[in-house]
């Protein structure tokens, strides 16, 4: 699924910049030849597994494991996996970043950058951010809802990932909003990018690292008991969600394309 030219570029990037081992745990739902009532279907699971398999073959440092969702409760609870497909990307420091849904289009480079980042020592943020992150003493889940063809989503994914890797108490999740309308409805997401800290109202559009950390600290200190009011207007850096998105079918190519050239 990844064009050969892009595979070679990624192979060169991994050879140059991967400094340690990377583990990718994919939680999937395999298709069955018969319909089973109540069983979760996953149209993008085959594509997700194929993309990650191709990526894992580009470096000996990448170890891909594939699990059937619902059969490994200990791992699912450890990483907070509830839906398929979900890829848990982690390095030796074991600060996982979750990709929930197929990271196609502009989100694909974010996946590659995450693989490179987790292979290294955690990034050192500016002193002001580092001081505030020390106030985070419990796990905070930072969920970024994104679309592969929407502007600013890839940039915001990068901000979320770098900040999350700087603290052992943060877990970043990059969620393909079009695949999981139930999650977008649950968290009140009306536009993307939308960043949700635990159960707080979403931050819409591009958010600066300072503002993101401030919201993370509020969530960690349980200021959600007096929650910030949801923003009624959509900022110019956010793209409204379509009123209705058709679910993907196996083998379907999204309008944005599965992969954009990685440079």
Task: Please outline what is shown here.
With 263 residues, the chain is α/β, with parallel strands linked by helices. It has eight helices and ten strands.
SSE class = alpha/beta
Helix content: 25-40%
Low-confidence stretches: 245-257
Please list the strands of the largest sheet in the order they lie side by side.
Answer: 2-1-3-4-6-5-8-9
Proper CATH architecture of the largest domain: 3-Layer(aba) Sandwich
Strand runs, count? 10
Written overview of the protein:
The protein has 263 residues and is α/β, with parallel strands linked by helices. The chain folds into two domains: 1-32 and 39-120, 3-Layer(aba) Sandwich (Glutaredoxin); 122-230, Glutaredoxin. The protein is built from eight helices and ten strands. It has helices spanning 4-17, 45-56, 73-79, 108-118, 127-133, 153-165, 181-186, 209-220; strands spanning 22-28, 62-68, 86-90, 97-100, 140-146, 170-176, 191-192, 194-197, 203-204, 239-240. An eight-stranded mixed β-sheet has the order 2-1-3-4-6-5-8-9. The protein has a two-stranded antiparallel ribbon with strand order 7-10. β1, α2 and β2 form a beta-alpha-beta unit. The longest helix is centred in the N-terminal third of the chain and has 14 residues, at 4-17. The chain is globular, with a radius of gyration of 18 Å. The protein starts with a helix and ends in a 23-residue tail after the last strand.
């Amino acid at each position: 699924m990844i064009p050969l030219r892009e595979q070679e570029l990624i192979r060169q990037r991994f050879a140059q910049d991967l400094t340690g081992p990377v583990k990718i745990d994919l939680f999937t739902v395999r298709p069955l030849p018969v319909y089973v009532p109540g069983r979760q279907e996953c149209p993008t699971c085959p594509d997700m597994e194929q993309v990650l398999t191709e990526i894992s073959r580009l470096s000996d440092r990448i170890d891909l494991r594939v699990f059937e969702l619902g059969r490994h409760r200990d791992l699912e609870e450890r990483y907070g996996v509830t839906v398929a497909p979900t890829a848990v990307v982690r390095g030796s420091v074991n600060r996982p970043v979750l990709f929930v849904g197929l990271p196609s289009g502009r989100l694909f480079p974010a996946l590659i950058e995450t693989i490179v980042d987790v292979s290294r020592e955690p990034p050192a943020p500016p002193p002001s951010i580092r001081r505030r992150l020390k106030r985070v003493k419990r796990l905070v889940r930072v969920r970024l809802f994104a679309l592969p063809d929407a502007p600013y989503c890839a940039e915001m994914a990068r901000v979320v990932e770098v900040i999350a890797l700087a603290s052992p108490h943060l877990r970043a999740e990059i969620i393909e909003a079009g695949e999981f309308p139930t999650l977008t409805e649950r968290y009140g997401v009306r536009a993307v990018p939308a960043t949700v800290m635990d159960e707080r109202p979403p931050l819409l559009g591009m958010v600066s690292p300072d503002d993101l950390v401030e919201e993370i600290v509020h969530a960690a200190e349980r200021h959600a008991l007096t929650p910030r009011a949801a923003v009624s207007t959509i900022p110019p850096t956010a793209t409204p969600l379509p009123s209705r998105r058709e679910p993907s079918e196996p083998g379907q190519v999204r309008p944005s394309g599965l992969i954009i050239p990685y440079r």
